[in-house]
Amino acid sequence: MGRPDARYACAVALLILLQPRVVLGDALDDLIGSVEDVVNQVADRATEAFRTRFPAVAACECSRHACDGDLGASSTCRQELGDSELCPGCTGQKIDFNNSFVLTPPSTDPNRLEPGVKDSICTFRGMDDVFAEAKDEFGIRAWTYIATTDGVMRTWPGHAMERGDDVPSGEREEELGNCKSYDPRLRPWYVAATSGPKDVVLVIDTSGSMLTADGELFGDFRSRWQITKEAILALLGTFGISDYINLVEFNSKVKVLVADNLFQAREQEIALLRDEVGNIEPLGGTDFRLGMEAGFDLLINATRRSVEDEEPTSSRCQKVILFLTDGEDCTTTDSKCSMPVAENETGVDSVLQFIEKKQTELEAVGSQRAHLFTFSFGFEADDEIPKEMACANEGAWSRILPGDDPLVKMNAYTSYLASRRGQSDVIWSRTYDDAFGLGTVVTAAKPVYSPMTSTGEQGGLIGVVGHDVRIEDFNKRAPGFQVVIGRFISRGVQCIPIEFSGCDLQLLRGEDAQCPEIYDDAKCYFFEATGDYYMSPEAPLLDFSGAEAYCKERGGFLAEIEEELEENLLSGIASNAGSWLGLTYSDEVSEWIWTNSGRVESDRSDVWTVLSNPTGRAPMTCATIDRRGILRNVRPEDCDVKTRFICEFVGPNLPTGCTENDTIRVNDEYEYNVRPLSTCRPEEESLRDATAVSPAAKNLTNEIVICPLAEPKSTAEVRCCDDCKL
């Protein structure tokens, strides 16, 4: 249950940021410092526990699950944490001060635990002593915990989770006796600690196609918009007090949902934004540039105002745009666009160049470039432009399919920001309602990382430790607690510059979403892996026959893909909208044939884009390769279209027109701008080794990891004192 009066007081208090800074007294500093000391102490112990986890996991003893029906010592009524909102009108609550309890990730069957979940539970099984010893100046008045990247949460003191009829039907875990589902990775304190302060704009496609339902075969009859709306509403709850946010909806038109600026992620603004999201009615077409223009203008204006007017309109830190679409942009269809596409410019290029123009404007006002994270919703959603948008703007792309949780997919951007926050200090969340019944709280949290890798890279994110403080406790100790909130914000705004190495983003993107190399301009390219030379001239733009003749006149042929590695290399010199390859459909044999070698390419080959329909139906009887990735980036094209092309010349001799001075050699000595995953194996293996699941975890039985669950009981039976009359 919420406490509207407390949340309103907090919201009003946050306005202190607009006033001159108030000097805090030493006593108040000590109070805040004592909370941060607890977090640092627990974080240090968690880091050491992870480093030495192998023997601890092998000797694992079972942990109580917070959804159990028999919780041992927690059957004792205690007063230390005060009353619980789960037991209205009752004094005290049942809590176990001898043991921490665990929660498993949503939809996890405790009888079928994954090795990674077992490892997380057992790694931190021995944390109870540090939980009990690490006390702030409030005493023991709230929870201390650690949550891992795989969704396991260990909380002290141990307490039962809400369950049964007290939980809405859509939030229950059937495998756990209808216990309330809980994912710590989506809580404000976790996101604040892992991603730090940021400006985030959600740019959401609300065209008419969003009313389509894709999940009937899975028993889900909700439309794409219903699913997206639920994810957005939940995503809004993940932002912290150091974040500045807004949302843009676009179709054939565009609308900024609240005001014309970014606003601090406080309770009242988030509530207003949620109301606006609820009023959206999808209709019309799809115009990517309209949405991106509004999104970038929000970032530009917020940065300018924060610099020139010293207004709190921006975090002055990471800039992120989350872009979701379920269709194709108007530049690639017959639909009318709000902005023209220049002559001799493709639709893909017009979108990418427009975004680059807005990035330049953003940098001109003193900001870093924005990271673009793009999502294609559904089987039919375009992946060409969204993928290339992400690749060109230090982001990542993902497809959301029926059965996927779009909230988890969209919130994954925080893992990119988290990968470079290994040196961050304690950060404070915004105020929020505690999911475990303590009312309005604020959390001090800190990310925990594995040790440095063998290649000298920062270790991977393990999870987040947190320590809650009840707002009512701060009010009692510091009646002028408005100043405390100001101090929270100042401590939370710790901007750590994020610079990714050549492999960092590729490792985070994964196999399906990795981006092609960005080669420097050159007349010719030599790929040592194939032993051949290649040309990819920017001009002239030619149809297939003209391109084929151009290559033959110079002693070559339109490039062919003989193996996966060659497709990877060719994608790096391909144009955004696609370059001709020597692949055509033969009506005589009803097959796709490589024109130089005569090899057949199956219409089920992995070279074709996901949405391709390579049936050879006229006029789509030729093929191009584009930059949407390093695999599955070949598609059928009308042979009469004029576009760029790639010529291939058999080595070892330089082809006519090429010299050593204007040839880039891609060999073992070549320094990549965007390294392919195939060259990142040492870093990948090193990071994997640093965060590897303990060998013993795979052989642990479920009963050794989680104590066998007793028969389910109601919330009142496991959490409320026995003399409580509900």
TrEMBL record:
Gene3D superfamilies the UniProt entry points to: Mannose-Binding Protein A, subunit A, von Willebrand factor, type A domain
Gene Ontology cellular component list: voltage-gated calcium channel complex
Domain C-type lectin residue range list: 520-648
Keyword Endoplasmic reticulum carried by entry: no
Keyword set includes Magnesium: no
Region described as Disordered: 157-177
Protein name: VWFA domain-containing protein
